[in-house]
Amino acid sequence: MLSELVLSEEGNMGRAFEYVIVGGGVAAGYAALEFARRGVSHAQLCIISEEPVAPYERPTLSKNFLLPESPARLPSFHTCVGANEELLTPQWYEEHGIELVLGTRVESADVGQKSLLTAAGETIQYEILIIATGAQAIKLEEFGVNESKAENVCYLRDLADANRLVDVMQSCTGGNAVVIGGGYLAMECAASLVTNKINVTMVFPEAHCMPRLFTPKIATYYEDYYESRGVKFIRGTILSSFEFDSNGKVTAVNLRDGSRIPADMVVVGIGIRPNTSLFKGQLAMEKGGIKVNGKFQTSNDSVYAVGDVAVFPVHLCGRIHRLEHVDSARKSAKHAVAAILEPDKTGEFEYLPLFYSKAFVFSWRFYGDNAGEAVHFGDYSGTTFGAYWINNGQLVGSFLEGGTEEEFEAIANATQLKPAVDDPTNAGMQGLNFALTISKKMRPQTPRMEAGTSSLVLETPVYAWHATAGVVLAASISAFAYWYGRRRRRW
Prior knowledge:
Elements: E1 4-7, E2 13-22, H1 26-37, E3 45-48, H2 90-95, E4 99-101, E5 106-110, E6 115-118, E7 123-131, E8 135-137, E9 153-154, H3 159-170, E10 176-180, H4 184-195, E11 199-204, H5 216-228, E12 232-235, E13 239-244, E14 250-255, E15 260-262, E16 265-268, E17 272-274, E18 285-286, E19 289-291, E20 303-305, E21 310-314, E22 319-321, H6 326-341, E23 354-359, E24 362-368, E25 373-378, E26 385-391, E27 394-401, H7 405-417, H8 424-430, H9 432-441, H10 466-490
Parallel strand pairs: 2-3, 2-7, 3-4, 7-20, 9-16, 10-11, 10-16, 11-12, 19-21
Antiparallel strand pairs: 1-2, 5-6, 6-7, 8-17, 13-14, 14-15, 18-19, 21-22, 23-24, 24-27, 25-26, 26-27
Helix pairs in contact: 1-6, 7-9
């Protein structure tokens, strides 16, 4: 069915498409590319997005977009450059006959009638729907903190947020920033603020940063380096209130433990919540997201869900998961399109969870599941170290900092194989050799590392601005050498 004008039951004029993607983030862009590669006809596919721009690589917003010199700007980071694929500019969508309905909010969905109603009053009907609505930032108001929409309190989820954050940063050089949160986004934003010559204090209730993934030993290593770059950590407490000046700007942050921190700006990174409200009561939900099968099909045969909203079976872990990471968004979108267009040739999604990041001079990857006992290995006073997670006598997760491509591939292969581990202590003593030996014995297909978009300083090298990022990286290496020298003398 090609696009056609239709008249809804309410008498509203609208359009109809064979395939509709609601949501315009990373998953939507990768789904569009997969549709095009598999020969979708002109006017068969429509993408509806609240954002006014075509899908882009969202991780760039907390990294190269915030660089003080030669920052990333669209169109350089539209999808799908994060995986070294085509750059899908608005012109690309036009050339492939894919309808972009931008700056448009979907007000309601009726999966029984296969229709969507936009805020503009247009009805869009579909035969197959892909939900790629992503997630929204959790706001402080949900915890009873009044921010009065202060102009120097920033969140970071979309392009508008990023532009606002840049404006606030540029007005605060040499000033004080308070980062609320200790997860992925908070750590990346803190590093970017330091790069912009802003003093940073991080506040979070946990005992250490990245508590959902890092062990205390791993977290301590990174926190030590952040502190060497001037970042202060206040752990074990939370924000209780702000102080404002006569113009409504935040001037200080008050914490529950009684501390008061002067602030010229505040960045909030306390988590995200999947955008599922359109489909509550219509589709099966679980773990805060939309429950799907191994082909990303929901409880309604005509509806699929991918990316941050999808709760799908992860066979390696033996349970269903909702994963908040760009690698999952990209790959789930591709698999869903394959399952839609070639259902008989597409099996269940076999996914090895992958998380990764590059901050300052560091580069780490985590594969699998961090369940069970963590066994550390390597030189935690040096630059290469890691950990294995052993659960029920099997290797289920692996973390490595500072590895070579061969070493990263080895820990991925070993984790995917889930070998029996009779003596976790011995596995830790063997370190990387444990994974290398297993990997050489039997090589599964390693999930491909999508290049670039997790890098804090350097993104995909095809970007025209990578040279400037290299200068930033060189400066960070010098700083690390000084810090590391002092660290070695101290120990």
